[in-house]
Design brief:
alpha+beta, 4 helices, 9 strands, 36% strand
């Protein structure tokens, strides 16, 4: 069973959100494990607007290519260049050094609690 930190919020598409100003966004350990070793990450740029539920990036692994869906609506404040340079960080530290972007949020409705996300994984 994957690690599902209680302090984070989640989406059904396996993104996580750490509350703060700005919020920090990444993909869950479950998603990273399912994808396998990541070899490429494409993220939005600082200043880009993202809209909850729409594609805002892409991850490529040795197994497949998957889209990253924005869990919130807002403006990208920071991009984690370390994961762009070393995508394996997402596999190694999905909730710490493997975060993807930080966003100044306009709307963060519809996120799942850790319990709700865990129930989704168990379904």
């Amino acid at each position: 069973m994957s690690n599902v930190p209680a302090e984070l919020k989640y989406t059904a598409e396996h993104e996580w959100v750490r509350e703060g100003t700005p919020v920090t966004i990444g993909i869950t350990e479950n998603a990273a494990e399912a994808l396998g070793e990541l070899v490429f990450i494409e993220l939005p740029s600082v200043g880009d607007r993202i809209t909850a539920g729409t594609v805002c990036g892409e991850v490529e692994s040795t197994k497949s290519v998957s889209e990253i869906y924005a869990p919130v609506t807002g403006t990208v404040a920071e991009v984690n260049q370390a994961v762009v340079d070393e995508p394996q960080l997402v596999n190694d530290e999905p909730y710490e050094g493997g975060w993807l972007i930080r966003v100044d949020v306009d709307d963060a409705t519809g996120l799942l609690s850790a319990e709700e996300y865990s129930a989704l994984l168990d379904a």
